[in-house]
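2024-03-11 09:14:02 DEBUG pipeline.ingest accepted 1 chain
2024-03-11 09:14:02 DEBUG pipeline.ingest length=125
2024-03-11 09:14:03 DEBUG pipeline.predict start
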Amino acid sequence: MFGTVIDEDDRAVVQEDLQKLSEWADSWQMEFNVEKCKVMHFGSQNNKFNYFMRGKQLEVFSVERDLGVIIASNLKVADHCHQAYATANRMLWLVARTVKHRNINIMVQLYKSLVRPHLEYSTSV
């Protein structure tokens, strides 16, 4: 769920949407794990209101990982880039440790299939 909150009235609208979402889940016999539900505040002028679901306050996070993409509340990609670099570096080290006969064609194929996808995943982010 996403909402723009400037004042108390906007906060009430988002809180009401959370309530409606909980009621919808109840009517369809679904359950939300409230412990896994989180709030992320964007913007430096954000009032950082608290939100509740099923009587429990939702935890506030500044960094969250979703589908392999690290999203920060300041919308900077440094954390995501660092993670991609670290994963690719580990794969590169794995290839260097395990491959004894270093034929250039084999090394290029291993790089393209094992290392490069970590560097290119979600680059549009």
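2024-03-11 09:14:41 DEBUG pipeline.report Helices lie at 8-27, 78-98, 104-120.
2024-03-11 09:14:41 DEBUG pipeline.predict end
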